[in-house]
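Supplementary Text 2. Reproducibility record for the structural model of the 237-residue chain.

All settings were left at their defaults, and a single model was retained for analysis rather than an ensemble. We include the record here because the model underlies the residue-level annotations in Supplementary Table 4.
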Amino acid sequence: MLRPEAWFASPASPALPSAIAPAGDGLPSAEFRSLHEEIVRYVRDGESAAAEPMTAGAATSLGAEARALLLRSGGDDDTAGEGADAEQRRRFVEQVAPLAREAGARLGVAPEILTAQAALESGWGQRPLRAADGSDSHNLFGLKAGAGYGGASVAAATTEYGAQGAYATVESFRRYDSAAESFRDVTRLLQSPRYRAVQGTGADVGAYAAGLVQGGYATDPRYAEKLQAVVRGLRQR
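Retained model, structure tokens:
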């Protein structure tokens, strides 16, 4: 699933209060909602051409503030955690460690690999999927809400990859009540026959990453490479 690269709106978001409260990216909630709704409209209207790479030049029809927010959230290579400092990374690992151990035991996968995957998808918890009011969806693994999914979701402008390279699109992503629920859901997914190749891979991150790619987990052609880089960083620490 590639870490979502833009910002989010719940399809059934309630009206926001007029009080100004900080939201995602440190913006007031009303401003955050206005900017990311502009981004979602921009993508849905087809102004970011599907075949055009996601670059500053491709976002020129957005307002300056929305363009800055989109590009700020859409940095490509945060594989080594450049977007989060050492203390933020330490806190993230500490917070998800028991969840990663439980999921790893069920899957037969080293917990640091699942920690690294959550870090890659969420930018070490610094770039979570957010609803229109800035609230966290707790979706640490970028799982999409497909046709058979009946739970809560958020509509998201995100980056995918095709024959022409990176392009912007709008997808529906799952929304959870907690990080623990996110870990349980990704565990259920990876226990399915589709991802049999990841099961029981232990500490072999190369085999795990190859299994994810084989199962179609992400469209990013460098996903396996990025995941392995994060795991290497965790093990060095």
